[in-house]
Amino acid sequence: MRTLVTPLLLPSRRSTSEYWLLAAIGPVLVGSALLGWQLGWLSASAATFCFLVLAALIMRNSRARSFGTADVVTLVRGVGVCFLAGLALQALAGGLARHGVLTMIVMGALCLTLDGVDGRVARSRGEASAFGARFDVETDAAMLVVLSVAVAALGIAGWWVLAIGALRYGYVATSVVVPALRTPLPYRYSAKVIAVAQAVALLAALTLRLIHGEHWLTNTFLLAALASLCWSFGRSVIWQLRHS
Fold this sequence. Notes:
Blueprint: H1 2-9, H2 16-39, H3 41-61, H4 69-94, H5 98-124, H6 130-153, H7 162-177, H8 189-212, H9 216-243
């Protein structure tokens, strides 16, 4: 009888990812409250909603019981991207105050800095995993979408700048109908550098607007970044078509 009853009485074992997500709820709520008080409740609501989506995706895709230190660093970045999304929506809906743009720049810079930390932590601690790599890539991609929307919504550049954030998702969508694009790619350090350059260019555009207003360097940075991104994706597509 004991062997039948005891499992029903014991609480279900939670994964470490659940504990970290629960721990993140407090900072997210406090940050959302501050964001709503200073900049508008639209941005606060959007940031909270994005965090709920992020938590749901992590719960669905994290198969391992262990959520490593590198995953925690990526989670911090993911929470930062949620707040960036709230600020971008505020800019899209009715404009973003000057201190809101400054907040976006600082938060984006912190997320970009941590982007160079989680991979090193994973390798040094032996925590590298398919989930961690995917989590890192999706966080990077989401940040580029959010920043490109903010740059376009604030009138810093034309809506063509959305191509920086959309190109990767267009590539993934095309791979659904073109099986060759699902061929695993070899690691290229240049691809990582170019991806980081996109975020740097978008943050530089926001910074130039904050300091100088309209500036001719803005479109130069963004066009150069987009051109390098197109070259990187084009190189990958050609390699996959040849080796599929």
